[in-house]
Amino acid sequence: MTDQHNASGTVRRSRRALVVGAVAALCVLGLVWAGLVLLGDDREIRLEATTRSGEATSISWSGPDDNGKGHDVGDGPMSVVKTPWSKDIEVAVESGRISLNVIAVLGDTATCRLLVGDRVVVEETGRPAAHCLVSVERAFPVN
Asked: Taking the C-alpha atoms of 56, 91, 64 and 122 in order, what is their torsion angle to the nearest 10 degrees?
C-alpha cells in the first residue's frame, strides 16, 4: 500500500506542476498581448512642414530610433525645399524625442506639425522659423 500511496502522491504533484506551469504560460501570453495592445503595433508619427511662400531654406528632423541623428531634407545646405513637406516615421522605441525644424525664406512664416493619426501632438508657427519637439511618451501615451 505504501508504493501505491507514493505513486498516487507523485501523480498529484505532477498534475499540480502541470497546472501551475500552464497558468504561468497563460499569464506570460496575456502580458505580451496586453503590451502589444497598449503600445500598439503601429506607432507612426507624421512630420509636416509648411510655409506661406511654398519654400523653406531648411527642413531637418530627428527621431529616437536612430539615437537622435539629424536628417536634413534637400540636396544640400543651400538648397530650397518645396512646402508643404511631410514624412511618416515609425517609432519602435519607448522613450526619446522626435523633433522637426523648419526655416522659411527671410520674411516668411514657417509652421511645423507632429501628428499621430489625426491627433495634432505639437504645432508651432514662427517667423522665419518653427521648431516642434515631443517625447515618445507624450506622442504615444499608455492609457
From this structure: 50
